[in-house]
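Kindly inspect the following:
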Amino acid sequence: MRDLFSTIRKLTLALALGAMAGLTAFSPAAEAAGVLERGIWLSGPRYDGAIRPCSEALGTISQQFAEKESKFWNSALVITGYANVHEVAFRAWANDSIPRRFCTASAMLNDGRARQVHFSVIEDGGFAGFDSGVEWCVVGLDRNWAYNPSCKAARP
């Protein structure tokens, strides 16, 4: 009797393993996304190129510059005004890249010196993809060398 139960268990285990192997061997190949997923969930970004003009980013730059100088460099420098604000390029890179408006301006600082500011306004580049984002660099005050030399990496 004991041999009968042992044989049944072995036979059941062999059948279960065989069924699993058969199911995996004859199953369809895996796809990255199904038709429904491709149509709704994985549609990708849809940029329309509607980016704020250069002049609307100046307040953001002034605020971020003052915060950066006081918080990280223990400096009282702030931007007091701008002149000669103009666009340098629009969508200067490949067509399928995130749309950017590249701009430049002359910024007057509270130390009495005028410095060049290079910046870009990025579509959906704000926090968590909401609103426009701004990347900027003040020539001569890129102390962490993020856009060095002379803010070249902030230009198109």
About this structure: Residues 54-154 form one domain. The mean pLDDT is 84. The two ends are 84 Å apart (CA to CA).
